[in-house]
Design goal:
Elements lengths: L5 E2 L3 E5 L5 H8 L2 H4 L10 H12 L9 E7 L5 E7 L7 E5 L8 H15 L4 E7 L3 H9 L3 E10 L4 E11 L10 H5 L3 E2 L14
Antiparallel strand pairs: 1-2, 2-3, 3-4, 4-5, 6-8, 7-8, 7-9
Helix pairs in contact: 1-3
């Protein structure tokens, strides 16, 4: 069973429950938080229920992947999420209500989730961030992820071009192996000089 309860110094990481819909709506409706997320802000609790049923609860039925509510120990109320997809990307993502930004919460949660995914035998995780959101890349680096390449896509459903930076962390000892799906899928792709000691992949 995926998404087991975890605890860190400040946080409880657990599954979302139906009674968390109100807290989830606070996160999903915020336009600033939504800027770099791959869906539009939620406009109602009904849309939040759709998100819960179609993006969260379905993860709990899969063998791999996870979808954690990030909660402070003091009240156990979700203030964000952190997840890894069950498909072959094992895409790692996160969001946090803006009043909790810049407190190291996502990094603290991410460290615990990465360790759990390692224990569960996941071979690797990937993560992408919009080039205009470099703080997200900072979180990825703090979690031990390495920049591999950048690519441009017509981002859906928002339908505008975005340059994404792809990061990866391998757990299986195959340090040089790179997840090439986005490199191969999109015509515009290249390696930027971001972390030159760690750029290891993908010349055509």
């Amino acid at each position: 069973m995926n998404t087991p309860r975890l605890e860190t110094q400040r946080l409880i990481l657990r599954r979302f429950e139906e009674e968390d819909i109100g807290a989830l709506f606070l996160l999903l409706k915020d336009k600033e938080v939504n800027t770099f997320l791959p869906w539009f802000p939620a406009k109602s609790t009904e849309e939040t229920w759709d998100f819960y049923n179609n993006r969260v609860a379905v993860q709990y039925k899969k063998e791999q992947g996870c979808f954690y509510a990030i909660c402070l120990k003091e009240d156990n109320v979700p203030l964000g999420y952190i997840k890894a997809e069950a498909d072959d990307s094992h895409d790692f993502g996160y969001a946090l209500r803006k009043e909790f930004w810049h407190r190291g919460i996502v990094t603290e949660a991410g460290e615990a989730v990465v360790e759990q995914l390692k224990k569960e035998g996941l071979p690797y995780i990937t993560a992408t961030h919009d080039r205009n959101n470099p703080r997200s890349g900072g979180v990825m680096r703090r979690l031990g992820m390495r920049y591999q390449y950048s690519y441009e896509e017509q981002w859906q459903p928002k339908n505008f071009p975005v340059v994404f930076r792809m990061y990866q962390l391998n757990f299986d000892g195959e340090a040089s192996w790179v997840y090439r799906k986005y490199w191969d899928l999109y015509d515009v792709h290249y390696i930027e000089e971001i972390e030159s000691p760690y750029t290891v992949c993908c010349k055509t």
